[in-house]
Amino acid sequence: MSNSEWKSVGNGHLEGSISIPDLDPSKLIVTLTARLKPIPQPESLVFGATMSDHMLIASFDPINGWSAPEIKPYGPITLDPASSCFQYATNTFEGMKAYIGPDGSARLFRPEKNMARLARSAERLALPPFNTDALLELIKRLVVVDQRWIPNLEGHSLYIRPTIIGTRSALGVSASDHALLYVILSPSGPYFRTGPKPIALLAAAENVRAWPGGTGSHKVAGNYAPGFLPQRNAAKQGYDQILWLLRDKAGWKVTEAGAMNVFIVLSREDGDIDLITPPLDGTILPGVTRDSVLAIAKAHTSGNLTLPGIPSTQSVHPYEQTFTIADMDQWFAEGRLQELFVVGTAVVVAHVGRVGFQDDMKKPARDLVLPSHEGRMGPVSRAVRQMIIDIQQGKVEWDGWSVRCE
C-alpha cells in the first residue's frame, strides 16, 4: 500500500485514500558533526559496538506523511514512554554492509533485496509504507558522508542498520500510525571471535524460533529476544549458537542457526555435490546471503562462473529441501555429510564443527562431530564465502550485485 492510499480513522489504523508525502531524497537536510570521532584500528572492532559520526532519520505521521529526511550527528533520540515500539514491539530492521571497491568507491551488496524485505516486514507489522528506492538513495548518501569509517581490510566492513519503529503514543492495542525511520552505521570485524575455527551448535528441542503463521519470515524485533535465554544456556554448555528445530510429522526438522540460514553439503556417487538448505516455508528468514549462495551454486553448475577451488567439471546442485536431525545422523553414518555451514549478512559464511542434539533437557547433549577438513572450512563453504566477498568488494563483477554509492 502506498502512502497516497492511507488516512487516519482515529483508532490508530490508516485506511482509505488521501495523498500524503512519501520519503523524498530531494528534501534531504545534511547537518555535519563539528567534531569527528577517532576511528579505531580494524583489528580491535567488535561487531556492532562502535558507531560512525552520523545517522539518517525521518518521521511519519498520518497527516503530514514522511518528514524531510536528515543526516545529522549520531546521538540519542527522544520517544514518548507509551510509544508502540516499547509496548508492542512494532520494530523492524535490516542488516546491510558497505565495502570499499578497487576504485575507492563505497559499495553495497544487493541492497534492493534489503529494501524489499524491510518493506515486507513493515507491512507485516502494519507500519507506514515508504518508497524503497528513496530510502536506498538516502542510505547511499549517508554511506558517502561516513565513507572514512569503512574498514579497508578483508573480513571487515561498515555494517548498516536501517530501522523503523512505531511511535504512536497510546496504550491501545492497535497498529501504530506514527513511525520513526533511522539508519545507523557501525564499522565491524568478523562476527565470530573464533577466527577460522569452526563453531558449535546446540540443537535444543525445548524452544522454537518461529512457527507456521508467525513472523519467522520477516525481520522483526520480536523474533530475537525470545532466543536470548536459549542462547545463554547453549553458551554455558560450550556451544556458540542454537540450531533451531521445529517438530512436525517428519521429525525434528532443521530451520535456522541463531539468526542465520543453514546449508548442508552432501557427496554424491557421481562425484558431484548436493547443497541443501531448508525451504522458505514461512518460518525461515529469506536471507540475502542465503539467496546469493543458491544463485552462485547454480551459476557454477551452469558454467556461468567457477567457484574458487571447485573444479568446473564438478557440479554443485542447490536444493531447498526439508531435512531433520535424523537425516543428518543418517547422512553422517553413510559418509555423505561433508559440511555444515551457516550464512548471514553479519557472518557471511561460518562453518560448523559439531552439533549437539538435546531432546531431553535433563540429559546431556549428544554430539555429531562433522568432518574437520584439517581445521579449515570445507571446500564448498570456503568457495562460496570467497566468491561472495570478492563480489561484495568489487573484485568480481557479477549480475549487478555490487552497487556503487554515488
Automatic annotation (TrEMBL):
Keywords assigned by UniProt, alphabetized: Amino-acid biosynthesis, Aminotransferase, Branched-chain amino acid biosynthesis, Pyridoxal phosphate, Transferase
Cofactor: pyridoxal 5'-phosphate
GO molecular function: branched-chain-amino-acid transaminase activity
Any single GO CC term annotated in Swiss-Prot or TrEMBL for this entry: mitochondrion
EC number: 2.6.1.42
Stored InterPro entries: Aminotrans_IV, Aminotrans_IV_CS, Aminotransferase-like, B_amino_transII, BCAT-like_C, BCAT-like_N, BCAT_family
GO biological process: L-leucine biosynthetic process; L-valine biosynthetic process
UniProt-listed CDD domains: BCAT_beta_family (cd01557)
Bilayer-crossing regions: none
Reaction catalysed by this enzyme: L-valine + 2-oxoglutarate = 3-methyl-2-oxobutanoate + L-glutamate; L-isoleucine + 2-oxoglutarate = (S)-3-methyl-2-oxopentanoate + L-glutamate; L-leucine + 2-oxoglutarate = 4-methyl-2-oxopentanoate + L-glutamate
Protein name: Branched-chain-amino-acid aminotransferase
Family per record: Belongs to the class-IV pyridoxal-phosphate-dependent aminotransferase family.
Organism name: Lentinula aciculospora
N6-(pyridoxal phosphate)lysine sites (modified residues): K219
Upper classification of the organism: Eukaryota, Fungi, Dikarya, Basidiomycota, Agaricomycotina
